[in-house]
Amino acid sequence: MSASILIIAAILFFIAGYILYGKFLIRKFQIDPAAPTPAHTEQDGVDFVPARTPVLLGHHFASIAGAGPILGPVYAAVFGWVPVFLWIVIGSIFFGGVHDFASVIASVRHGGRSIGEVIEHYIGRSGKRLFLIFTWLMLILVIAVFAKAVASTFAREPAAASSSVMFIGLAVLFGLSVYRLHLPLWAVTAAGVLLLFTCVYLGILLPVSLGFSWWIYILFVYVCIASVTPVWILLQPRDFLNSFLLYFVLIAGVAGIVVSNPRIEFPAIAPFTADIGPMFPILFVTVACGAISGFHSLVASGTTSKQLDNEADVTPVAYGSMLIEGVLAVLALITAAVLLKGDYTQLLKAEGGGPITIFSNGVGGFIASLGIPRKAAAVFAALAISAFALTSLDTATRLGRFIFQEFTGGVPGRSVIANRYVATGVTAATAFVFTISGTGSSLWPLFGSANQLLAAIVLLAVTVWFAKLKRKNGFVKYPMFFMFAVTLTALGSLVLDNLAAGNYLLFGAGITLLAVALVLIVEAVRCLRATGEPGG
To answer: Which letter does DSSP use for residue 149 in this model?
Structure first.
């Protein structure tokens, strides 16, 4: 099987999905370009700030991508490349894309409120509080997983660390130029992209070599600062500029595959049960980002909906970003699939190896076919992925702060706890405990299961919303049924595994997530039955 055929087929499927199913979603959600959005009606200069379409696309894509669409497909390749490829394509178009589109527009239609507040409106206050507990715990796992990924990449590739530090300073300069000096976006973007690649070059010349533990401490100090900083200063401009890194990796990686046309050596379909568990349900929670991800709903309703300038932007920003992430996931799958099974296993388990190493080395080889030195291409790929993992890390901290504030802000006499600085500190401190509690391999399955279960809960909330509006909701409801079947099975299995392994912290987190989700489902089903919702 030719890898070039696989990547071209994926891109064609995604283009067709964007044109055809994207229009279907526009009709279903009755998108109105003339309707005012919360970015304008609630503008406050901190969280509610209108953003131009390319800027918001860059922010949203950078926030949702991270290392997730790299890690999942590479881990899941053990099941064979065919089932992973099919889940990425079908999941992105009919599951993840719908989930992300719905999350943004549901928040916009409810004043830029979070999905938790939308749940409160349709399911009740108890439903909202259960949802907030679930999502906050899930975000703790997100922060822990990505902190480990970023710290290990920085320790292994010092050039990635120094470039990332420079990116942060460049982002602040970009934000001041656009929002305070009011310079033309095109001119600032051109200069920003040029300086961005200059930072990459300088990072290779001036690497910062620190150990893994040092980077963990530095990253947690950084995310605390980033969580309370206005979005226009750091979050929005940094994500926008960083998106050009990943666009370059995607375009160059795809072009390199087409030019070099490597053969896929990995088995098409492997045995049903692998080291990480049975194909059902483990495949569908291992490939989370890249097919469907509950974390996307938190970005969509936490930051993106507050910056959406026009309802019509939801298609390129939300649905388009999910499909671009699908391309990245297929690219990651190919970097694993062109390896022989023995080489794949050795690289995955080797000291200093892992999914990001497989991806950066694989993409480096593809890009090298375009005439770029292989080592430089591999380092650049690692830089791009670490930059996006860092983006997801501080976005998750900000979202965790939002949710903690929501949960505690309504309790009389506890306004100090709801303070954004206190909320950030509690969120980061809890995530730090999880970060040092276990290995990445033990955190990832629990994160994946919680992440996918969150997606199912969001689809359930949208199903209830449509039912109360007396609109047909089958396009949301049936993906929801599948995701609940997958995630409840996987999470239950992981709870038992962590108990048997004596990892009581992860066992406690898992059992709490499972219990909260089950109670929330019961509440939602009760509300759904009361609506007499249509079935189609």
So the answer is: H
- For the stretch 213-235, pLDDT in tens is 999 999 999 999 988 888 778 87
What share of the chain in percent tops pLDDT 70? 95
Q: Which residues pair with 277 in a beta bridge?
A: 274
Residue that has been written with the tokens 């409106």 in this structure: 121
For 18-34, write each residue's pLDDT tens digit: 999 999 999 999 999 99
Q: How far apart are CA 425 and CA 314, in angstroms?
A: 32
Phi and psi at 274, nearest 5°, equal -120, -175
- Can you give the pLDDT at residue 31? 96
532 close to 472: Cβ distance less than 8 angstroms: no
Q: Is 479 exposed, middle or buried (0-12, 13-18, 19+ CB in 10 A)?
A: buried
The secondary structure of 483-530, three-state, reads HHHHHHHHHHHHHHHHHHHCCHHHHHHHHHHHHHHHHHHHHHHHHHHH
In degrees rounded to 5, what are phi and psi of residue 228? -105, 0
- Structural domains in the chain, sorted by start: 3-531 (1.20.1740)
* Cα distances (angstroms) measured from residue 326 to each of 221, 281, 355, 507: 32, 20, 17, 31
The torsion defined by the Cα of 185, 191, 193 and 194, in degrees rounded to 10, comes to 170
CA distance linking residue 7 with residue 424, whole number of Å: 41
Contacts of 334 (CB under 8 A, 6+ apart): 3, 6, 7, 257, 262, 264, 362
Distance, CA of 212 to CA of 317 (rounded, Å): 35
Cα separation, 443 vs 472, whole angstroms: 38
For residues 263 and 152, what is the distance between their CA atoms, to the nearest angstrom? 30
Neighbour-count burial of 190, counting CB atoms closer than 10 A to its CB (0-12 exposed, 13-18 middle, 19+ buried): exposed
**Calpha distance 356→352 (Å, rounded):** 10
User: Could you tell me if 483 and 452 are in contact, meaning their C-beta atoms sit under 8 angstroms apart?
Assistant: yes
Q: Phi and psi (nearest 5°) for 277? A: 125, -175
Give the DSSP H or E segment for 390: helix 374-409
Contact 290, 332 (CB under 8 A): yes
The two tokens of residue 335 are 């970097």
Q: Are 128 and 388 in contact (CB under 8 A)?
A: no
CA angle 115, 117, 120 (to 5 degrees): 115
CA distances from 381 to 149, 154, 222, 248 (A): 14, 13, 23, 9
Strand partners, 189: none
pLDDT tens-digit profile of 364-404? 889 988 888 887 787 778 777 777 778 778 888 988 888 88
Question: What pLDDT is recorded for position 535?
Answer: 46
pLDDT tens figures, 169-215: 998 998 899 888 888 888 998 998 899 888 888 888 888 888 889 99
What distance in Å separates the CA atoms of residue 210 and residue 218, rounded to the nearest whole number?
Answer: 10
